[in-house]
Amino acid sequence: MVENELTSILVDRTSQDFAVCQKCEVESLMFPPERIAELTNISTREIYRLIESGKVHFIEKERILVCVESLREN
């Protein structure tokens, strides 16, 4: 038996949650690791591990923002 879990994130397109991901080369939904942890079953610590290992894309402005598209691929 295979069990899958799906997480849906609803956002307002006029919000500041979108930025261009340098690696995806497209505009992507970007959230800080703490917000992603709130929305998923992934701990903040695991998100930072994914960042450090290069498995997810991120940008660093005033804070770290993770590319949700790259997170979906993991």
Describe what is shown at a glance.
The chain is α+β, with helices and mostly antiparallel strands and 74 residues long. It is built from three helices and four strands, in the order ββααββα.
Share in β-strands: 15-25%
Spatial order of the strands in the main sheet?
1-2-4-3
N-to-C span: 21 Å
The structural domain count equals 1
Helix content: 25-40%
Mean pLDDT reading: 83
Strand tally is 4
Shape descriptor? globular
Topology as H/E string? EEHHEEH
Specify the structural class: alpha+beta
Rg, please?
Answer: 12 Å
Poorly predicted runs: none
Can you count the helices? 3
Quick one: biggest sheet?
A: 4 strands, antiparallel
Report on this structure.
The protein has one domain (18-72). Helices cover 30% and strands 23% of the residues. It has helices at residues 33-39, 44-53, 68-72, and strands spanning 18-21, 26-31, 58-60, 64-67. A 4-stranded antiparallel β-sheet has the order 1-2-4-3. The chain is globular, with a radius of gyration of 12 Å.
Topology, pairings included?
Layout: E1 18-21, E2 26-31, H1 33-39, H2 44-53, E3 58-60, E4 64-67, H3 68-72
Antiparallel strand pairs: 1-2, 2-4, 3-4
Give short descriptive properties of this protein.
single chain; 4 strands; 3 helices; alpha+beta; globular; 74 residues
